[in-house]
Write a structure and sequence with these properties.
The chain has two domains: 8-159, HUPs (Rossmann fold, 3-Layer(aba) Sandwich); 167-314, Rossmann fold. Helices cover 40% and strands 17% of the residues. Strand 1, helix 1 and strand 2 form a beta-alpha-beta unit. It has an eleven-stranded mixed beta sheet, with helices on both faces. The protein is elongated, with a radius of gyration of 22 Å. The chain has 315 residues and is an alpha/beta fold. It is built from eleven helices and eleven strands. It has helices spanning 18-30, 47-51, 61-91, 110-117, 134-139, 143-150, 176-189, 232-245, 264-274, 284-294, 301-306; strands at residues 8-13, 36-41, 99-102, 124-128, 156-159, 167-171, 195-202, 215-216, 253-259, 279-282, 311-314.
Length: 315
């Protein structure tokens, strides 16, 4: 008798913000109900404990009473939020045992505590692009930005706006890192009705088709992709097979190759926006190459800003 594969364990950072709740809705529409386990992770700051010593001074007793009432209300609010999230997942068909909640007290810092938890057998992390304080996120770095810089062992999915979860654009340049993106996308959402496009970009010197069109769409993606001597054809075929093996039907998978000289990061986002792809899967190598070209640095707010209304999978 063949053993059933364990469910994919997904860590979702919850802070009660509008964008955090949007990430919840995205996850509920994205992942299969029969093989996904969500852990709702909400780090709690014990402000009352920080000021508890002040209660010994008569002058501060009245203030302490108000602070204690406020912290109690905050705990009640996050518990209610988590209960509502669990109810939402159940309404989408997820069984009760597929959802767990964790509300640990902040130890190292919100982002650091999430990173520490992420090493406990998770397949991916989901986080909203902005938190409860947009001003703080703008002046400093949002939790999402900190996680992008620190989480490299599993995919991190940064959700902006209210993206459609059904259609995914997988940026594919034939590299090992890009193939990892294909494998992760297939393993997490395979055997579903999602539509995936493998999107590749080449420079003009590698153009292999006749005519002036800057775009090549394989006429028969079920068979070998004729790209002349260009090696991307074989790799696209392998990527397609990986998705089929993960459970997607051939008609759910498409491929597109564009001639692009510069602005590759911008072109990926525009391709997604223009064709109703709510999710973009991109490897860190491609992301950093884009940054090197334009911002001379590592992952920054400027890059995520391009995908402010999309769910960006960073592999």
């Amino acid at each position: 008798m063949q053993e059933t594969a364990p469910p994919n364990k997904i860590l979702i950072a919850v802070d009660g913000s509008e964008q955090s709740l949007s990430a919840i809705k995205y996850a509920a529409n994205l992942f299969p109900t029969d093989r996904t386990h969500f852990v709702l992770f909400s780090v709690q700051t014990q402000l009352f404990d920080l000021f508890s010593d002040l209660g010994a001074y008569p002058h501060f007793k009245r203030s302490m009473t108000g602070l204690k009432r406020w912290t109690t209300e905050q705990k009640s609010e996050i518990c209610e939020t988590l209960d509502n999230i669990v109810a939402h997942f159940r309404s989408k068909g997820f069984p009760e045992e597929a959802i767990s909640t964790m509300t640990p007290t902040k130890m190292l810092g919100v982002a650091q505590d999430i990173v520490k938890e992420s090493y406990n057998g998770y397949e991916a992390i989901i986080v909203g692009r902005t938190g409860t304080s947009r001003f703080k996120d703008w002046v400093l770095k949002s939790t999402a930005m900190k996680l992008v810089a620190k989480v490299k062992h599993i995919p991190i999915i940064v959700v902006g706006g209210h993206p459609d979860a059904k259609n995914m654009l997988v940026a594919f340049n034939g590299s090992h890192e890009a193939m990892k993106g294909v494998v992760y996308a297939g393993s997490l959402v395979g055997r579903s009705d999602h539509r995936m496009q493998l999107y590749s970009m080449i420079n003009a010197e590698k153009k292999f088709w006749e005519g002036s069109s800057p775009v090549y769409i394989p006429a028969d993606f079920n068979g070998p992709i004729d790209t002349g001597s260009f090696e991307l054809g074989q790799q696209l075929g392998e990527a397609r097979q990986r998705l089929v093996d993960a459970g997607l039907a051939p008609e759910q998978i498409s491929a597109k190759i564009s001639v692009v000289d510069r602005e590759r990061g911008y072109r990926i986002v525009e391709e997604a926006r223009g064709n109703d792809y709510g999710s973009v899967v991109i490897s860190r190598r491609e992301l950093i190459t884009f940054i090197d070209e334009y911002f001379i640095g590592r992952v920054s707010d400027k890059v995520l800003k391009l995908a402010d209304e999309l769910a960006l999978w960073i592999i």
